[in-house]
Amino acid sequence: IAKHLYKDDWRRHLTGIYIGDDNSDEDALKTLEDKDIGIIVNPNPPEHTNAGYYVNKVKEIEDFLKWLNEL
């Protein structure tokens, strides 16, 4: 849909959000661009992560997604 709307420039118009909960998500988080958002769900996030943000529990992700939907 995005490519149809924005043609070859589609990526410039979108922000990706990746939400993960453990080290197996690090490969996906590495692929995010600067404007994208990476979030780890973990009360004790790893010292080295490619995620820019972390939350303590899944409920916080639910709240974030509800807030995002209201924008």
Which characteristics define this entry?
71 residues, alpha/beta, three-stranded parallel sheet, flat
Structural account:
The protein is α/β, with parallel strands linked by helices. It contains three helices and three strands. The protein has a three-stranded parallel beta sheet. Strand 1 (17-20), helix 2 and strand 2 form a beta-alpha-beta unit.
Major beta sheet, specifics? 3 strands, parallel
The overall pLDDT average reads 91
Q: Which percent range fits the helix content?
A: 25-40%
- Rg of Cα set: 14 Å
Number of helices: 3
Q: Which class do the helix and strand fractions yield? A: alpha/beta
H and E order: HEHEEH
Number of DSSP-assigned strands:
3
- Poorly predicted residue ranges: none
- Spatially, the strands of the biggest sheet line up as 1-2-3
Taken as a percent bin, the fraction of beta residues is: 15-25%
Broad shape: flat
- Amino- and carboxy-terminal Cα gap: 20 Å
Short description:
With 71 residues, the protein is α/β, with parallel strands linked by helices. It contains three helices and three strands; from the N terminus they run αβαββα. Strand 1, helix 2 and strand 2 form a beta-alpha-beta unit.
